[in-house]
């Protein structure tokens, strides 16, 4: 496995990816940050500017950044869009429809699903500098980066689209599941792919919003496994850059965490019928100390909903009167 340092123009092997530069994020790219990409070519591009504001501002001050590509709408991938006011923001149409509306974002992330409209209004007010209603471990609930960085989308990307930046060419692969519009990006000349949140972290796949789909997530992982002539896989969180053999082996383990969570739920349900409100308290996805956070509680709930739907579809459990039981 190869890990590059934060400095955007000083990777350990500067010739490995040519103009495709890896931007190491704050806190090793852990949420709510990410690891981004700077394409330093004739046409200059930032992909997923959620890494480090100092690095991004340095790049923007010394370059004319033509495009900012967001792989999807999640906070950690768009949070510093606002640093690039003169760049064209690009995103897949399935996620782009959310931009320009905090209400749509609140619904997509499930905030308006689990909590009432008053909570949504309090969250919106908090983002604009009002009293802090949502408190917790993640700064996803704070500041106005949600507001500033989701105000506009200037162009739409679609599956199979090809962009030429000079020496570098980029192909778009629509990989829904983590979000409706999530895309990965392939750089054929560099034999590399930016696979965003297929990051192989020990946490496993994330599907804690209303727009997540487990079947689509698994299908999209298959698309990445079937990429031909790709030797390097660049991730957006923590683990960095993988060669092909390490990535393919790691991807199997990463996706297997979905099945492991299924089995944890089954073991709990074997003790007797249980409502989702009680199942959430078992902290199957997140550690118990994290679920006290309002956002993490929401994510735990939505992850478990996706599993319960999957297990019902598979005929392994049933729902009766708001309680779930093993068949």
Structure description:
The protein is of the alpha/beta class and 327 residues long. The protein is built from eleven helices and 15 strands. 33% of the residues lie in helices and 17% in strands. Strands 1-2-3-4-5-6 form a six-stranded mixed sheet. A six-stranded mixed sheet has the order 7-8-9-10-11-12. β10, α8 (214-225) and β11 form a beta-alpha-beta unit. α9 (244-269) crosses α11. The longest helix is centred in the C-terminal third of the chain and has 26 residues, at 244-269. The model is unreliable at 1-15 (pLDDT under 50).
Shape, principal axes of CA atoms: globular
β-strand percent reads 15-25%
Largest sheet: 6 strands, mixed
Summed over residues and divided by their number, the pLDDT gives a mean of 90
- CATH homologous group name of the largest domain: Ribonuclease Z/Hydroxyacylglutathione hydrolase-like
The total of helices stands at 11
Q: Which stretches are low in confidence, meaning pLDDT under 50 for 5 or more residues running? A: 1-15
Please give the CATH class of the largest domain.
Answer: Alpha Beta
What is the CATH architecture assignment of the largest domain?
Answer: 4-Layer Sandwich
Keywords summarizing the entry:
single chain, 327 residues, alpha/beta, Metallo-beta-lactamase, Chain A, 3 domains, six-stranded mixed beta sheet, 15 strands, 33% helix, globular, disordered N terminus
Short description:
By secondary structure, this protein is an alpha/beta fold. The chain is built from 11 helices and 15 strands.
């Amino acid at each position: 496995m190869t890990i590059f340092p934060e400095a955007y123009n000083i990777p350990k092997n500067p010739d490995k990816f040519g103009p495709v530069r890896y931007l190491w994020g704050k806190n090793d790219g852990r949420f709510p940050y990410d690891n981004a990409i700077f394409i330093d070519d004739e046409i200059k591009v930032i992909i997923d500017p959620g890494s480090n504001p100092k690095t991004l501002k340095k790049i923007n001050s010394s370059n004319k950044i033509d495009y900012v590509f967001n792989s999807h709408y999640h906070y950690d991938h768009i949070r510093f869009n606002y640093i690039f006011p003169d760049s064209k923001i690009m995103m897949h149409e399935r996620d782009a429809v959310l931009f320009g509306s905090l209400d749509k974002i609140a619904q997509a992330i499930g905030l308006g699903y689990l909590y009432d409209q008053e909570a949504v209004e309090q969250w919106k007010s908090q983002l604009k500098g009002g009293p802090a209603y949502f408190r917790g471990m993640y700064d996803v609930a704070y500041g106005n980066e949600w507001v500033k960085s989701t105000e506009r989308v200037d162009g739409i990307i679609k599956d199979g689209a090809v962009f030429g930046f000079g020496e570098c060419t980029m192909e778009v692969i629509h990989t829904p599941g983590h979000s409706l519009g999530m895309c990965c990006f392939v750089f054929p000349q560099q034999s590399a792919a930016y696979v965003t949140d297929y990051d192989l972290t020990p946490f496993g796949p994330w599907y804690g919003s209303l727009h997540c789909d487990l079947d689509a997530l698994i299908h999209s992982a298959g698309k990445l496994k079937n990429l031909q002539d790709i030797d390097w896989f660049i991730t957006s969180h923590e683990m960095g850059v993988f060669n092909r053999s390490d990535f393919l082996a790691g991807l199997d383990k990463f996706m297997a965490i979905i099945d492991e969570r299924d089995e944890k739920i089954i073991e709990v349900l074997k003790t007797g019928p249980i409502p989702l409100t009680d199942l959430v308290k078992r902290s199957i996805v997140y550690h118990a100390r994290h679920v006290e956070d309002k956002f993490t509680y929401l994510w735990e709930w939505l992850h478990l909903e996706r599993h319960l739907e999957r297990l019902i579809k598979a005929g392994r459990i049933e729902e009766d009167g708001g309680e779930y039981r093993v068949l």
